[in-house]
Amino acid sequence: MADALDYSGLVDLAAGTVDRAAFTDPGVFQAEQERLFTRVWLFLGHESQIPEPEDFFTSRMGTESVIVARDRDGQVHALLNSCTHRGMKVCRHDHGKAKVFTCPYHGWSFSNDGRLAGVPGALIGVPHFDKAYRGELRREDWGLSRAPRLEIYKGTIWASWDENAPDFLDYLGDMRLYLDYALDGRDGSPGGSRVVAGVQKWRVNCNWKFAPENFIGDMYHDISHRSVDLVGIGPAGGKGRRAAFRPRLAIGFPGRGHGVLGELPTTEPEPYNDAWALYPEVNDWYRVAHEARLAHFAGRPRVAMSVGTIFPNMSFHGRQPRTIVVAHPVSPTVTELWRWCLEDAAAPQAVNDAARVYFLRYSGPGGMTESDDMENWSYATAASLGPIARRRPYNYQMGMGHARPAPGLRDAVECGELTEENARIFHSRWADFLRGEPWAARVPHAAE
Ligand code: FES
Ligand code: FE
């Protein structure tokens, strides 16, 4: 296959612009698939979706379907969902339980660790392996493609197709502190969360990059949620969402591409916010959990955050409702959004019910804020396709030259919350991959 063209010049950091072709051009989209999605660490799902041996769910890595399967020994594998015979999708279910995945086309079957287990001959249901292949097929060469790198971090499952990708924790860097904030229990207990059953999946007519760029720190777009604030759908009711907000900074990780709206590490005690005051039982539980969290971190720096993105396409909310959203590319102008809702493993049912209901009215295809965002992204994509529109790049000049090193964090910068620094960091990292830059050029490999 011809090597992808170098589209990295579409990002002009000196001018603070990104060419619209980065969001609309089929050639750029293909280059992203070949140069970015085959290398980075990608979020696949959560261990609580496959608690038992032989459980599986299907997910995506870029445009490609993968089966995330737990084998009979409990090991988790990410397998390309494409038969090695003629490419048929061997698993067409969202989740389930299976010892083997049998291809519907000619019947090859693959064990849940990816090995080619069975090859029928010409007659349906008769094991004529010897007759069809005369014993000459090397079965060990024809298993499903398996992602060589897979990491489970506090229940979240990540994989990369690149053998040489840095270890996952090096890939995260200090962004890990903010991911921890979202994944740990509200009392600070490590990894004390699980996903609410079911993943919301829906399609939006926009380029996939709109979503992670929005969640990496686009506080500026909050004006488009004005109606949400007027309705006051936050847990504090009429006081609206901001009752639960404390001032945030945009904190970005140049060279890694991650970013967050959050606080710098601090040992200052954080006052409890009565965001759930309308629901006394829920509020009481959060107050106790908050005290426990402060005790958990006593004398140690801790962070708080509201929303962030792990490069390239995994974003998350760290406050209630805690959610994960992944923007899967489908085409230059179509994106499939998947959303997971996290709940506290230790919380009583009433608390998790309240968080789930709030999640449904806030996020997802029927959520009030997400509807605003989807409308912006899809109209922006459509209005960027024409020959005249394509003459002008997007403007990313807000806050250029005003980033400072972030105290208490390695390889990080911070700005006030109204800045496009994190978006510039995202697109700069995107350009690195489209240029084919080696890992060692930006991400330090040695774990500290
Ligand atoms: Fe799967 Fe032929 S395509 S067995
Ligand atoms: Fe929004």
Automatic annotation (TrEMBL):
InterPro entries: Rieske_2Fe-2S (IPR017941), Rieske_2Fe-2S_sf (IPR036922), Ring_hydroxy_dOase_asu_C_dom (IPR015879), Rng_hydr_dOase-A (IPR001663). This is Rieske 2Fe-2S domain-containing protein. Keywords: 2Fe-2S, Iron, Iron-sulfur, Metal-binding, Oxidoreductase. Coiled coil: none annotated. Residues 42-140 form the Rieske domain. Belongs to the bacterial ring-hydroxylating dioxygenase alpha subunit family. It comes from the Bacteria. GO terms for molecular function: 2 iron, 2 sulfur cluster binding; iron ion binding; oxidoreductase activity. It comes from Roseicella aerolata.
